[in-house]
Amino acid sequence: MLLKNPQHLLILGSRVLQLFRLERHSLLMLHGGWTVSAEKCNLHWNPPLNDGGAGISHYIIEKRETSRVTWTEVETHVEAVSYKVTKLVPGKEYIFRIAAVNKFGIGEFLESDPFIAQNPFTTPSTPSTPTASAVTGDSITLTWERPETDGGSEIDGYILEKRDKEGVRWTKCNRRRLNDLRFRCTGLTEGHYYQFRVLAENAAGVGAPSEPSEYIKVCEATYPPGPPTNPKVTNYSSTTVSLTWSKPVSDGGSRISGYIIEKREKQGIRWVRVNKKPVYDLRVKASGLREACEYEFRVFAENAAGLSEPSLPCPLTLAEDPKFLPSPPAKPTIIDSSRSSITLSWNKPLFDGGAPVTGYKVEFRKSTEEDWTAGVYNTDQTEFTVTGLTSGTEYIFIVRSINKIGISEPSPETDPQVAIEREEEPRFDISTEMRKTLLVKDGTPIIRISIVVASTCKLFKCKVL
Full-prediction pTM beyond 0.85? Predict the structure, then answer.
């Protein structure tokens, strides 16, 4: 027999069971604006405070647009307490609701606050009105300035549009998105008048168009050329800098007759002309610079109509002699050895790279192996003893030079050298006072003794230790 009662008791014969109601979720929220976009969002919630006496098996998620009354399923089996919802309609306002499920059934739904599916950023503001910098019989070169705001997302590029005065429709000038603030629109009809506007684009989309330009007539005309592009330093010394650049995008309808180059010191205000007469090549060598000063350079193009605007200045360049890696030392020489060490010496490199050699790196390897081991990383001497070697093992050595730029290529390898006591003929300089006892290094039995005589000497029987 089953009875309904306020205490939620179920009486079955002599057994009484207490029933639990599946409580509402304690929290449903959207992750912050950084995870809500025009087409997706992340939902997050906490489990119910009461699981109804049985573990929560999963959750059901439904959604509806605020303009509708019917709910649609998003997912009917979600085991986690978060879910990424996709395929939202940009600009629509949504409400989500979630219900927990256990083996006894579905709990009550908990609804979220309404929210609009939109990006956390907007399209860029309008660029400046494009202006013509050069006109020919079939083209017009336009320039413009960046928008005041990028809408919170980096600008990806620009779209330039044109409209013939005899037409009403705007058409694109560029097939691909423009990354520069300048574009030469070609294929125009000579004698026609055209109007231009530009739009900026970011991740949110294409912004509003700029104010249209005035109508511009396509005709052969002569204007000052556009500015040269891409000025860069190709070589330098303590008193000179070599500079190159590229031709202007537009010659203004007249042949480029030459280029003017100007320089300015880092702390200076005034630009100073480098060349007295225009140069005709796309390169120049500026001389008479002050050593250790930083300079920037800019270039003007010239035609029959006059000088162009200056190019963008190249990066600051320090007037100094260039520095390189030093050359390696000559082949090292083995000058001594023992059972656990080998001493080698070498000469300084022929070329220090323009910067003083500050040290040397000594490396060695067993003749049967290929991997090199550093004996010392930076010694300022031209002689070094490598210790910790294995007696009777054959070793090969190289040396590298070091300056402030880096480490040189390796020197030629030494001849293989075995770590053993070095065998030499004993030699004694007894030009000074004869010692009563001579100490001889007992490497091998003495076979012959050479004596260096300064003037006269007497021979005595020597005690060999």
Answer: no
